[in-house]
Write a structure and sequence with these properties.
The complex is a heterodimer of chains A (300) and B (380). Chain A has 300 residues and is mostly helical. Chain A is built from 14 helices and two strands. In chain A, strand 1 and strand 2 form a beta hairpin. Classes of the chains: A mainly alpha (300), B alpha+beta (380).
């Protein structure tokens, strides 16, 4: 009789290695999401936890109670819809600003002599070695009515009285673009630095001037870097809470702030959970659609 | 293979136009910081010829080509195209196109779009561009692949597209940078002849850079041997092989047996050399007309002109005894390494005309000999 070969039945080493990250995602991403989704279909309840249970065992019957009133509520009140819309608008604009600022930076670093590239990249990353919160507070000091910028402009006589900068959308944009710029620069740099210089030489050889070469060769070839950078900026900015809270004002309505208010001020966990679930769906669906489109493109 | 270049050469010698100079390089020198890459090179490329720059890596041949294309500026000297100074013209204004070693096909464009790229820069009308692209595709037999992207093509197909793209603008001069460098050996020999065919069809003047002497000899009408940024010799493949002008050229092209000798006698119609390596003296059927003072010369003899027998040859000159040291059977011919009495080892090619012949084997005593016009005398 043949000896039982265990290695044929048990998964190989490669699968075990992959299992680690998958387990991590399952426990720390998927399970919390399921929990939040579960809370989002419950009702508020005074007590601990502050929501009703989904499963109840009564008279030998398992009752499953799910309510979609929270979602209906979100859609009926235009505060939430405006908050979503505003978040997406701010995130989109911030992504465009980051791209306009970050692309030239990444391009310059990628074209710099190789011994300078590391230094310049380090300078881009250097601010993120201090706490994110401290840097946002620093912007409060800079932008405030009694802050550095206003005082300086008054001192050189450009203005008579301080301009309201802090607690405006302008300040939110400053904070967001400043904080998320490295996330745009790094993927763009990683893409641009791999470009084959021979392609630009070939374009030049075939009669293209530098500007044409850039728009016909470099830019189309860096699309993947642009997409990666934009996603890294857009997605976290949609749910950003700290920056609009500290730098924004009453006019700044963002979903992260509303979420916080529902959780901690209103103690309405079910509505807050529904908000969170909707936000994730709002982000995941376009990403998945885009992903499918990209697979189609490359699998031609 | 030599036939293709030979037929072409005859054609060109027949037409008077072939003698016209298209590109002149005048005393061009190029330094990269402190490093001398190209050393005072003067060259003329004639209308319609295929001209090869042949040299080892680091010989400056690629730098010279890149200066022709406009990617590098010469430190000194001038480059003229049809008499017009183009030394400091940017690449996009030169009527010179280049096929890159890596092909440098635009990965995000289809084959068609790659070919049309240069034509679009000239602001040609859409119909003209479509027509020209079609003709180019036909020229390189790639009509079926017009809609493919470069990553969907094989190495040979990529090369055809790259060639078509560099010809699409109908340049006055075509530059080929290591044209077969990225192909495997079998495909290489095939493509060499096909590329020559296509170039002949179009009638374009071409400068190519290669480190592969076989490729240069197959494809080129004339070859320049470069070494350390300097042009050692310019000539037809036959000139370069049969009459090298220096030890470097003789050693670089093919294999060669070299003997250091002293002049015994130097007449107008013959000369004799003495060397310690050989049993007999060397007799050469011509004199050294330059009448040099130095007595020591170098005698270069190609292995296929070095004959080997078991019997002692007649005559007082041009032979030596030896022992078979090693044998390399290469199919078409066999290389015999023969050790001479003084310990020097010479190479000797024997064509394998018969399937099984009675040949000397290891450690057999043999004689090597050659005709009086087989070798070349070089200054040592």
């Amino acid at each position: 009789m043949k000896k039982l070969d265990l290695t044929r039945i048990l998964p190989g080493g490669r699968r075990w290695v992959i299992a680690g990250p998958y387990l991590w995602l399952l426990v720390f991403f998927f399970m919390p999401f399921v929990m939040v989704a579960k809370i989002s279909v419950s009702e508020t309840f005074l007590g601990i936890p502050p929501y009703t249970a989904m499963f109840e065992w009564l008279d030998q019957t398992l009752n499953i109670r799910m309510t979609f009133s929270n979602y209906a509520w979100l859609l009926s009140d235009d505060l939430y819809i405006r908050a979503y819309w505003n978040s997406i608008k701010i995130a989109f604009n911030a992504t465009v600003f980051c791209l306009l600022l970050g692309y030239p930076m990444a391009y310059a670093i990628a074209k710099a002599p190789s011994h300078l590239q590391t230094t310049w990249l380090l300078l881009v990353l250097l601010p993120s070695w201090t706490s994110f919160l401290i840097r946002v507070y620093a912007w409060m000091g800079l932008l405030g009515n009694n802050g550095v910028f206003n005082n300086f402009m008054i001192w050189i006589g450009l203005i008579d009285s301080p301009i309201q900068m802090l607690n405006t959308n302008f300040a939110v944009y400053i904070g967001v673009v400043y904080s998320y710029l490295p996330f745009m620069v790094l993927p763009l740099y990683a893409n641009l630095v791999k470009h084959d210089n021979a392609l630009l030489e070939a374009a030049s050889d075939l009669g293209a001037r530098k500007v044409t070469s850039f728009f016909r060769i470099t830019l189309p070839l860096s699309v993947n870097g642009i997409i990666a950078g934009s996603m890294l900026v857009f997605i976290p900015v949609v749910g950003e809470y700290v920056i609009p809270e500290l730098l924004g004002g009453a006019e700044t309505l963002m979903i992260g702030k509303v979420l916080w208010q529902e959780f901690f001020n209103n103690r309405d966990w079910p509505v807050a959970s529904a908000l969170a679930v909707l936000m994730i769906l709002l982000l995941i669906i376009p990403i998945m659609l885009f992903h499918r489109y990209q697979n189609k493109e490359s699998g031609l | 293979m030599a036939l293709a270049a030979g037929a072409r050469r005859q054609q060109h010698e027949a037409s008077a136009e072939a003698k016209k100079t298209l590109l002149s390089i005048e005393k061009v020198t190029k330094y990269f910081d402190e490093d001398l890459a190209v050393d005072n090179v003067t060259l003329e490329v004639r209308q319609g010829e295929i001209f090869a720059l042949l040299g080892a890596s680091g010989s400056g041949k690629s730098t010279l080509l890149r200066m022709m294309a406009g990617f590098e500026n010469p430190t000194e000297g001038r480059i003229l195209l049809e008499g017009e100074d183009i030394t400091h013209q940017p690449p996009y204004q030169r009527q010179i196109n280049m096929m890159f070693q890596s092909y440098a096909l635009f990965p995000h464009m289809t084959v068609e779009q790659n070919l049309a790229f240069g034509l679009k820069q000239e602001k040609l009308s859409k119909d003209v561009i479509i027509d020209r692209v079609q003709r180019m595709l036909k020229l390189v037999h790639m009509e079926k692949y017009a809609r493919r992207k470069p990553h969907q093509l094989s190495g040979g197909q990529k090369q055809r597209v790259a060639l078509a793209r560099s010809l699409a603008k109908q340049p006055k001069l075509l530059l080929l940078d290591e044209p077969m460098g990225a192909l495997d050996k079998k495909l290489r020999t095939e493509m060499q002849l096909e590329v020559v065919d296509i170039l002949e069809n179009v009638g374009v003047t071409c400068v190519m850079v290669t480190h592969d002497q076989e490729e240069a000899m197959t494809m080129a009408d004339r070859i320049a041997i470069m070494d350390q940024g300097f042009i050692q010799q310019v000539g037809s493949p036959v000139d370069i092989y049969e009459s090298p002008n220096s030890r470097m050229v003789a050693e670089f092209i093919g294999s060669v047996n070299l003997f250091d000798g002293q002049i015994i006698d130097d007449q107008e119609d013959h000369m004799t050399l003495h060397t310690d390596d050989l049993d007999a003296d060397i007799y050469i059927g011509h004199g050294v007309t330059s009448g040099v003072d130095e007595r020591s010369m170098l005698f270069a003899l190609r292995p296929e002109k070095t004959l080997m027998t078991r019997e002692k040859p007649d005559g007082d000159y041009n032979w030596s005894s030896g022992i078979v040291h090693d044998i390399a059977y290469l199919g078409g011919h066999t290389v015999y390494y023969v050790r001479l009495p003084q310990g020097k080892i010479v190479q000797c090619f024997l064509a394998n005309v018969e399937r099984r012949a009675d040949r000397p084997t290891w450690d057999d005593p043999v004689y090597v000999h050659w005709a009086s016009d087989s070798g070349v005398v070089l200054r040592s």
